[in-house]
């Protein structure tokens, strides 16, 4: 069979890394770092997700095709988020006409 | 046990007439159809179900056109009319166009074309038909209980807060059917990656397969987002979330973003498989190798990917940010490039080919012309300033019917005629087929061309009354729709007739290239090929002769 | 192909092809799942951008202890899941069953804690709907936070329940000795699914519980 058997030690290392990162993200959340808080929280979450994907889901040891598949989902998620957010962030730059901008209430 | 005695005698009968066992005479019980995992039989199940939905959707179209015969609302009230165009859209899009070519022709042909015994996941394939049917039943129930009036787009906050029609029931139906589409796409992707016969490299694949690969990408990536959006509508109606309700601080545009993230690419779910069909038919009836194989192949993928970057062109007048609209407008022009590449390549394939005009080819040529008109008017609509003028008018209606009816259905008809001998083992009557192709072409133009004009003149869509000066164009349109309807009924009759009485088809009646023609019988045997074929040549390896006919 | 494996389906040439196809199919399904949750994440992102104060207020109502413990529980379940796959690859029947069971227990723990959390929130009148009460001038916006809280964690919990069903089915089959070093695809595929559900929570935890703690 073409299965790659990963040593058990690796799984425990990843497990403890994930726990430590969880502790760190909780700890950091209590400091007021302004916008940096969000960046750190998302950065840590992304790191944790990467560890799970690469090791627990064996992508690190998988074919290029699996890499492409795994990346595609996140790439298109980013497209969805980016365009949608671009609308929300820039909607008020030009008031389209009276009553459109703040008239929702 | 009595069936066990009965079955051999019946298959013996079939043996006598056909001389060979095939997927059709492999079993005759209802169970052998309803629990089949054979991709060919599942394709037939889909063919029957989508045909039912096509004529159901057509019925709503008839009622719409009848109402629009006069400027007054004399046939139905405004609310009834709202339900008519909503049900027409929902049935035609989610239950006919989306599954049409992939679930019928794709399902039947992809394993045959790549030299596989079946799709990668036969049971999931059957499951997806059942999911489709359950979704269809919910939608049908909603129609019986009085229909839904939100428009097929389910725009919020009307759908989420105000509409009193069966929104939940239809939402559940569309939600469920979405999973059927996802599973079909998933199945195709894995099949094309992992089930190709020895020697069948990516660049030997028929372009039909490339087109379905691109379609599947959209089904897998796009459908879940609209599913989430529809789920949110349901939650909003049930719990009063307020996500889409401006009164509670919500943003109705969020729904439109999620909806069109899927529903623009969904246009390509409908048209890309059609483009695959056209590539096959054009080469076969020009008896010439396709011009620019790799351009056509990659343009399918390009359309699938670029299709995800343009959804905001449906929201130019919705209050979406002007800057975002600008970006979406520019990107919309980009999608025109791969579509144009295809049209140019098909045209170039015809050049110096030995062109014959059988029914599939007539449909294919119709497709090229109608798709071009539909595509070019799409560029008008993608232009910000023009869109502000014609948005929500009949110009838009005409545009997308040129793509969906003129494009997708023409291609579906082309494919159905082209592979009918393969699927059923019978020939359809060619004369009638050419005649009905012509009727459909004429009826189509008469129906939808006036709508470009009446839309440009300012007639809004989705109203059952209109100013009197628009009547002539509307009467023309209704007359065209009548002709179009007749055009669709003729094939229904002769196809049904040919099942029993059509002449037997040989394995390759068109002299076409491709494994499904050259290595499989008509109809194919239960596991497609006697032994796994080995591919040694490029696709469309027609003799490079200049014919003098 | 001297001897065909009992688990080989008729339309595949060999076990390798079957395994590769199944794995790829699972990944394609997970792509779908990414975008399914993605629709909700997009909604969250928009309203978080529009109403940052309301989201901070709402987030303060959540109990960070529950969230953190559940994160640890779920990470633990991912570990036991991956060990179940590991022992499936080695073909050690009882260990497969044991680690599947451990995963199931941890998953159940997560759902139990979640249920306690839900009942607190519903008791406090934070479930969006007619009974929603929140004492603030921006209560409507806080309601949107809780809409996303319930929709996202609810969808996540639903995936956990499906996962628990799959684990039970695997346990039964593993007990019957269906999985060994030459065939363990279902264990591996359910593993992929389970880890994906874990990843969703890894993002939900900071987005729902940690924002605006400072
Ligand atoms: Cu569009």
Describe what you observe in this structure.
The complex is a heterotrimer of chains A (105), B (549) and C (214). Chain A has 105 residues and is mainly alpha-helical. Chain A folds into 2 domains: 7-57; 58-88. Helix content of chain A is 67%, strand content 0%. Chain A contains 3 helices and no strands. Chain A is flat. Chain B has 549 residues and is mainly alpha-helical. Chain B has a single domain, classed as Cytochrome c oxidase-like, subunit I domain (Cytochrome C Oxidase, Chain A). In chain B, 69% of the residues lie in helices and 0% in strands. In chain B, helix 3 (39-67) runs antiparallel to helix 16 (471-501). Chain C has 214 residues and is an all-alpha fold. Chain C has one domain (15-210): Up-down Bundle (Four Helix Bundle (Hemerythrin (Met), subunit A)). Chain C is 78% helix and 0% strand. Chain C is built from 6 helices and no strands. Chain C has helices spanning 15-50, 52-61, 64-90, 93-123, 139-175, 185-210. In chain C, helix 3 packs antiparallel against helix 6 and helix 5 (139-175) runs antiparallel to helix 6. The mean pLDDT of chain C is 92. Chains A and C meet through helix 1, helix 2 and helix 3 of A and helix 1, helix 3 and helix 6 of C. Copper (II) ion is lined by residues 264, 267, 313-314 of chain B.
What's the SSE blueprint?
The complex is a heterotrimer of chains A (about 100), B (about 550) and C (about 210).
Chain A: H1 8-29, H2 36-56, H3 64-90
Chain B: H1 2-18, H2 30-34, H3 39-67, H4 78-114, H5 122-144, H6 158-162, H7 167-194, H8 207-239, H9 252-286, H10 293-306, H11 322-350, H12 359-382, H13 384-390, H14 394-424, H15 430-456, H16 471-501, H17 515-518
Chain C: H1 15-50, H2 52-61, H3 64-90, H4 93-123, H5 139-175, H6 185-210
The structure holds copper (II) ion (CU).
Coarse structural class of chain A: mainly alpha
In terms of DSSP E residues, the strand content of chain B is: under 5%
Shape of chain B: globular
Domain count of chain B: the total is 1
């Amino acid at each position: 069979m073409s299965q790659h058997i990963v040593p058990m030690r690796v799984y425990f290392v990843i497990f403890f890394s994930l726990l430590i990162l969880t502790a760190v993200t909780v700890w950091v959340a209590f400091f007021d770092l302004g916008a940096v808080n969000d960046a750190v929280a998302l950065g840590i979450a992304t790191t944790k997700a990467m560890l799970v994907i690469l090791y627990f889901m064996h992508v690190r040891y998988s074919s290029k095709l699996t890499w492409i598949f795994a990346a595609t989902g996140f790439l298109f998620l980013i497209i969805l988020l980016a365009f949608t957010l671009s609308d929300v962030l820039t909607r008020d730059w030009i008031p389209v006409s009276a009553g459109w901008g703040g008239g929702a209430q | 046990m009595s069936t066990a005695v009965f079955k051999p005698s019946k298959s013996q009968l079939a043996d006598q007439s056909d001389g060979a066992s095939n997927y059709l005479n492999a079993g005759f019980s209802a169970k052998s159809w309803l629990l089949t995992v054979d991709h060919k039989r599942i394709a037939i199940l889909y063919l029957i179900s989508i045909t039912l939905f096509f004529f159901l959707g057509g019925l709503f179209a008839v009622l719409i056109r009848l109402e629009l015969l006069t400027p007054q609302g004399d046939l139905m009230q405004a609310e009834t009319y709202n339900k008519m165009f909503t049900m027409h859209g929902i049935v035609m899009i989610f239950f006919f166009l989306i599954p049409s070519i992939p679930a019928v022709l794709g399902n039947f042909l992809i394993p045959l074309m790549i030299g596989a015994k079946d799709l990668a996941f036969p049971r999931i394939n059957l499951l997806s038909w059942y999911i489709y049917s359950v979704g269809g039943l919910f939608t049908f129930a909603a129609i019986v209980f009085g229909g839904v009036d939100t428009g097929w787009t389910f725009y919020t906050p009307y759908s989420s807060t105000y509409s009193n029609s069966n929104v939940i029931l239809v939402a559940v139906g569309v939600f469920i059917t979405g999973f059927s589409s996802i599973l079909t796409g998933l199945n195709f992707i894995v099949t094309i990656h992992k089930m190709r016969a020895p020697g069948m490299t990516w660049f030997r694949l028929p372009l039909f397969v490339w087109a379905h690969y691109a379609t599947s990408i959209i089904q897998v990536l796009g459908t879940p987002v609209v599913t989430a959006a529809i789920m949110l509508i349901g939650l909003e109606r049930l719990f009063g979330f307020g996500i889409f309700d401006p009164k509670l601080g919500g943003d109705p545009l969020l729904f439109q973003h999620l909806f069109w993230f899927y529903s623009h690419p969904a246009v390509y779910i409908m048209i890309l498989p059609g483009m695959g069909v056209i590539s096959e038919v054009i080469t076969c009836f020009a008896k010439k190798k396709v011009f620019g194989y790799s351009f056509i192949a990659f343009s399918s993928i390009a359309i699938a990917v670029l299709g995800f970057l343009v959804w905001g062109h449906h929201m130019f007048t919705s209050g979406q940010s002007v800057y975002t609209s600008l970006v979406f407008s520019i990107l919309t022009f980009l999608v025109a490039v791969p579509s144009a590449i295809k049209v140019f390549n098909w045209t170039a394939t015809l050049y110096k080919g030995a062109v014959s005009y059988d029914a599939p080819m007539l449909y294919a040529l119709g497709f090229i012309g109608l798709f071009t008109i539909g595509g070019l008017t799409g560029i008008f609509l993608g232009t910000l300033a023009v869109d502000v003028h014609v948005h929500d008018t009949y110009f838009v209606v005409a545009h997308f019917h040129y793509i969906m009816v003129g494009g997708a259905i023409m291609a579906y008809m082309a494919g159905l005629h082209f592979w009918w001998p393969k699927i059923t083992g019978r020939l359809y009557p060619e004369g009638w087929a050419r005649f009905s192709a012509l009727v459909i072409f004429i009826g189509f133009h008469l129906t939808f061309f006036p709508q470009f004009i009446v839309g440009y003149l300012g007639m809004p869509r989705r109203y059952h009354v209109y100013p009197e000066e628009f009547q002539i164009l509307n009467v023309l349109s209704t007359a065209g729709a009548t002709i179009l309807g007749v055009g669709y009924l003729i094939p229904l009759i002769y196809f049904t007739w040919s099942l029993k009485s059509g002449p037997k088809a040989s394995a390759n009646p068109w002299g076409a290239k491709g494994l499904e023609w050259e290595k499989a019988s008509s109809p194919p045997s239960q596991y497609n090929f006697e032994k796994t074929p080995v591919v040694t040549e490029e696709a469309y390896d027609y003799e490079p002769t200049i014919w003098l006919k | 192909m001297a001897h065909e494996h009992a688990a080989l389906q008729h339309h595949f040439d060999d076990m390798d092809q079957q395994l590769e196809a199944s794995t790829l199919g699972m990944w394609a399904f997970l792509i779908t799942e990414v975008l399914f949750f993605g629709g909700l994440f997009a909604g969250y992102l928009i309203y978080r951008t529009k109403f940052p104060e309301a989201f901070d207020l709402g987030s303060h109502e959540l109990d960070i202890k529950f969230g953190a413990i559940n994160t640890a529980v779920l990470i633990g379940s991912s570990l036991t899941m991956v060990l179940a796959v590991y022992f499936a690859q080695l073909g050690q029947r009882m260990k497969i069953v044991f680690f599947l069971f451990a995963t199931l227990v941890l998953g159940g723990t997560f759902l139990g804690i979640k249920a306690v959390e839900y009942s607190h929130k519903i008791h406090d009148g934070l479930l969006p709907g007619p009974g929603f009460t929140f004492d603030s001038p921006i209560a409507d916006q806080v309601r949107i936070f809780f809409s996303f809280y319930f929709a996202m964690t609810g969808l996540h919990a639903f995936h956990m329940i499906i996962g628990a069903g799959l684990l039970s089915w695997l346990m039964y089959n593993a007990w019957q000795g269906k999985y060994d070093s030459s065939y363990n695809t279902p264990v591996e595929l359910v593993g992929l699914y389970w880890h994906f559900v874990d990843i969703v929570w890894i993002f939900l935890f900071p987005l729902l519980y940690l924002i605006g703690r400072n």
